[in-house]
Amino acid sequence: MDKMSATVQKLFQLAMKNKIWATFIIFVKFISFISIMMYLRIRDEDVKHSLPIEVKCPATVPYTLSSSSPLSGHGIYFLETSDQTNPNFLVMCSLESAARAHPKIKVTFLMKGLRKPARPKNLGISLLRCFPNIEIRPLNLSDLFANTPFASWYASSQFRWKPYRLPILSDACRLAIMWKYGGFYLDTDFIVLKNLKNLTNSLGIQSNYLLNGAFLSFEQGHKFIEICMQDFVDNYNAWIWGHQGPQLYTRVFKKWCSIKRLRDRRVCHGVSTLPPEAFYPIRWQDWMKYFEAITTTDFNKLFQNTYAAHVWNTKSQRTGLKLGSKTILDQLYSNYCPSTYEIMKMYL
Predict the structure, then answer these.
(1) How does it sit in the membrane (predicted)?
(2) N or C: which end of the chain has fewer CB within 10 A?
(3) CA nearest 103: which of 77, 59, 67?
């Protein structure tokens, strides 16, 4: 019996030692992760602080439209729902590419961090001001959500901590914009390749099972958007990633068309779902392909049916872009936002 007790005690001590060792390993890995994140943040801040706050408008900026010329058609909207007011190169490229593809349509960048009419002084804002059809405006959430199903939701939830607060705010804002104003909405990690004017009441298919609202094109006050807003509020869940985003559009479209699978219908009751190559030619699982070099011929073939390329910034933002490398992302920058690319060559 004593021998058995001694054996049990040894096993217990061994287990405790392993537990301490496992805890130590987890602690070391956590400290390493924090150190890496701090290094990346400091590196990014160093890059930002080394950039000028003003830039002379590059010769590549098109001057086909004077600032006094009237802008026609529904607008194109981009959002920044954080307090960030210093657009990075991808955001600059996204807006520039949209402005170039739509020289006579207003491109509006709504920024929550702009609390005063005066614009902050930084490289991104300075370059975007060079384009006469780009307008940078403050994003007032209370005003935007007024007279929509989001008004009471926002009033009751804005002070509660949520793990996906900024994406959820963005999900709500884009729906409110489509409902109130109509036009086009794009995430700031899109690079626009073609004019979008022929796309109406449509959104993109991300996969066989999921729609995505990173691109939206709807008429003002469209019933589909109204249903999406109501579903957002009625089935609100702040703890599930994408519940108010891709999953919302997918479940609403299935109800809209009375289908169980997305492949059963692509168009119904005036709403169209566009194939993945239209806006998501490279799947998020394959985001590293944007950093692979390809020939111009293969590049053109890849994007021949693409209106705008979603580069999955949440995945790709920490991967360095080597200028002149002929990677897919490098060619997207150089072809569709040459002014941003020119500045990147000067300061990176």
Answers:
(1) Single-pass type II membrane protein
(2) N
(3) 67
Give the tokens for residue 115.
Answer: 């609390």
Secondary element (H or E) of residue 268: strand 267-268
Q: Across the strands, what pairs with 273?
A: 203
What are 232-282's pLDDT values in tens digits?
999 999 888 889 999 999 999 999 999 999 999 999 999 999 999 999 999
Residue type, position 10, single letter: K
* Dist CA 298 CA 83 (whole Å): 39
Closest CA to 284 of 317, 310, 323, 258: 310
**76-276 CATH, one of 3.90.550.20, 3.40.50.11740, 3.20.20.450, 3.40.50.360:** 3.90.550.20
Q: Give the predicted TM-score (pTM) of the model.
A: 0.83
Determine whether 39 is exposed, middle or buried from the number of CB atoms within 10 Å of its CB (0-12, 13-18, 19+): exposed
| Domain spans of the chain, in order of start | 76-276
Q: How far apart are CA 215 and CA 204, in angstroms?
A: 7
